[in-house]
Amino acid sequence: MREHYADRIVALSARLVTPFIQLFALYVIFHGHYSPGGGFQGGAMLAASFLLIRLSIGTDAAQLQFQRSWGTPGGSIGTLVFLGVGVVVLFFGANYLDYAGLPLGLPEPELRNLGILFVELGVAVAVTATLTAIYDDLVGEKPELHHAGLEEQATKTEEADQMAASPGEEPEARDGAVGA
Amino acid sequence: MKPIKPIVLTALVVFAALIVYGIGHLPDRASPDAPPNTEESAVGTPNAAAYYIENAYTDADTPNMVTVTLADYRGFDTLGETTVIFAAGLACALILRSRRRE
Amino acid sequence: MPDLIAENYAYVATAALLVIGLYAILTKRNLLKKLIGLNIVQAAIILIWVAAATKRDATVPVLEFSEGGGHDAHSAVAAADYLNPLPHTLMLTAIVVGVATTGVAFALLISIYRRYGTLDEAEVLEKMRGGPR
Questions:
Q1: CA–CA dist A64, B18 (Å, integer)
Q2: Do the domain assignments include residue A19?
């Protein structure tokens, strides 16, 4: 994985700072009750920490932290948690998403407090997974071919794909990508 | 009909002038009599924001009124927004991933 | 006129941002610059909402239970002491939805570039209408 380091200092700094970013993101998610914060903000910060490792070290090393294949399933799990809390309450006689119907035997304000916490956790998971999945799809690399020695084979395959997908196009036309 | 720069600039200047004229007729932004800040709306019904501020702590045992409004009083809207975010991620995946099978 | 701008400086500044964003969408030929203009318009709209949600002598809509003068735990909450929480709530989700929508727009731009080889609006339209398939 050495050839993906653009700069060793940048890589080292990113690895030092990322745990603190993630800790602060978890603090923001769980303290949405007591200070400004909540699921959306904490989820965006957590996604930013994953993107920092992807940008500075490379996607291959970042698979140890958050796999490429967890993106879209994570988004669906977050949305299903939100929907599921609403449906669970339906089985116990309350309206949809009325947290007072949760079957935990606590007084009503504390049930609403717990319901808000579950919902914010679901939103945080959905936002984190979706933002990381968008980055992986936009800047993704073919995973099998980017190890040492097979870089040239990767670029040749991409050139062949582009030539095949747009017939009749000269390669010089791609320089005209800058408009006014 | 391609938009030409002088026509677009003239139209935008007229638009900006209309907006600034309209801003002059808006109520004072921070006064307690502005419509978002009153306790009763113009029709006589209670203002929703006043209800949320007064009852958020007793209803949900949570000091942050914004979170209570987001997740409890307006929970349906947050459900819709989460679905929109997930649909955007799904659309991005569907647009860009199918190319590898060609 | 200058005192109108001095009294409502927030609304005038966000209206200026809105007009700048509209200019970028309408005039620029590169599709990526149009997308940046769209983002500027979105930022201006969010700022207009948040600027409208102030109140004189009122504080942030979060109750504080500190010793030195926060909220007393058993007294009623007065609605005149706190800002309106609704615009802040709505704009919170609008920001994150804007990021996700910009991601989808980027995906579409990448597809257009791979298909036509250019991001210039006039060339893309010409190739869509008459060029070789």
A1: 55
A2: yes
